[in-house]
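re: that chain from earlier
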Amino acid sequence: MFYKYALEVSPSVMTGTLMSAFQISGMDLGNLAASYFYAYLILQIPAGVLLDRFGPRKITSLAIAVCALGNMLFGFAPSLLVAEIGRFFVGAGAAFAAVTCLKLTANWFPSRQFAFMAGLMMTIAMLGAVGGQAPLAYFISHLEWRAAMQWISVAGLVFAFIFWFVVRDTSPSHAIEKVFAPQKVSIFKNLKKLVKSPQSWWLSVYSGFAFAPVMVFGGLWGVSFLAESYKIPEHMAAQQVSLIFIGFAVGAPLFGHLSDRWGRRKPVMYWGTFLSLIAISLIIYVPIGPILPCVLFLFGFFISSFLLCFTMIREISTPMLAATAIGFMNAFDALFGAFSDPLTGRILDSQWTGAMLHGARIFSVEAYQIAFLTLPVYLAIAVISLIPIRETYCKPSYPSSLP
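^ sequence. v structure.
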């Protein structure tokens, strides 16, 4: 998860560099970033089924290697098409990250600890996102972006070998090891059970709308927006955007723990999403100056409450369907990322005044504010989509939800 998120957000500190290197527009850059999500989307449900059938160790070791090799191709890319192919393979490998971690959590820990452990997983993931912001910007400024990508790729190949030798699918002492062990399951049977559950659909829709603003703002366009809005260097803007992921890292396990203690999921998700809507609106449309770092942190902190929807879909799914159900939900996150980045780029291009710097397009603050109108709208829809979702009261309910 650390490695996956570092690679996912890395284009955010290279927007100008990439537009200049490949001589592309904002929409082209959005499509380049979306190439990652296309593969991520396509492979989410197959990833869950493969992990349920063969176990995390074998499948994920290969996935990490694919991720690293894809990033290596991206770093060597002589053209936009080759760069998009490279990012596609990065997304293909990354598609297994979240499902793997949540599957291993289900295999190694009691169900009552699932929400807290999932939050802890996202803490590590968001630290990876922080690493893909300011530290990467500093790395690129001293090494050049292509060389930086190659070193990161080599680190990924080393990590794939470590994963193979260290990770085990199940705990020897886990009381329900046999239930979660790799099993021969039918993809069609699993999907039929998921598709028949309205709860699965609503949770997935909520997840997609809630997380999309993090991907659009934190994963690609936020750094350049802050740099233009506050007239600061990109590496300083990257430091500011990193606060979103630090807030997420702090909030994810905290909300998981609080939800477990209160015995309820929905109220935590509702208030967290609502407060994140207020925070992102302030960031985009109000010149908050000195309190900007605080509000960025609070945006990441509050939106991390959305992660409880992964715990809820785990609670309504049979153990055999754990990874498939999570992959089904994660596919919606990828779907929104796949069209939101190019959509934002298209809107920015439509507002472009013709300004250029070092071969890259420069967009005005007003252009960003128009393009970012989708972000508070997404969060408002996410809040509304919580209404039909049934509370699980932190207890498994799969016998009646997914027979």
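The radius of gyration is 20 Å.
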